[in-house]
Amino acid sequence: MTDQSSPSPSAGPAAVEHVIDELETLSGADHLLMRDLIAQFGVASFSTLMLVVSVLLVSPLSGVPLFSTVCGITIALIASQAAWGRTALWLPDRLLDAKFSLSRLGRGLHWMRRLARWLDERTAKRLAVLVTQPFSRVVYGACTLAGLGLPFMELVPFTSSLIGASIAVISVGLLAKDGLLAVLGLIALPTIFLIPIFAVSSLFGTG
User: Fold this and answer.
1) What are phi and psi of 89, to 5 degrees?
2) pTM for the complete prediction?
3) What is the mean pLDDT of the chain?
4) What residues have CB less than 8 Å from 100, skipping those under 6 apart?
């Protein structure tokens, strides 16, 4: 079991694109441990670490079996500790030692960078009260529930990436004090989780 220190940095104007830059430096390796990923952003805030993991969910890596489950548990642990008000992040060694291949990551970085730039350009300081304490704890609580729900969505195509995109939007909102952006991400989450229910009801609801 390991503690990771996480002081809060100021959010730059290109927070998401910075994450893509850092991931690009890692993409040259064949495999990566989760602890290596955390170490790469070791001085980051909880919201930045949550952004990093959610960006990976949007990448082609989301198609790797059990990858979404590992990311979901990681997001849940990060967000729950932020909601609790911890100043240091704890993750179990078993999760930190999870290893995944980076062969799919490099292929997706180009379009992910375009998406990151689009999101960064639309970030502004709006409704900041919604992403500062005590309200930010509610936001982190919602991300905790979303992370816990991710393992159950693994078999539903594209939903893991959609959830990752929503959590990424929320994370940017927390970093940039953009409450409007965070609210938009929060609104999207329940809709995404309802997709399997709608799919099953449409399949079996009519005879």
Assistant:
1) -85, 135
2) 0.88
3) 86
4) 31, 32, 34, 61, 64, 67, 70
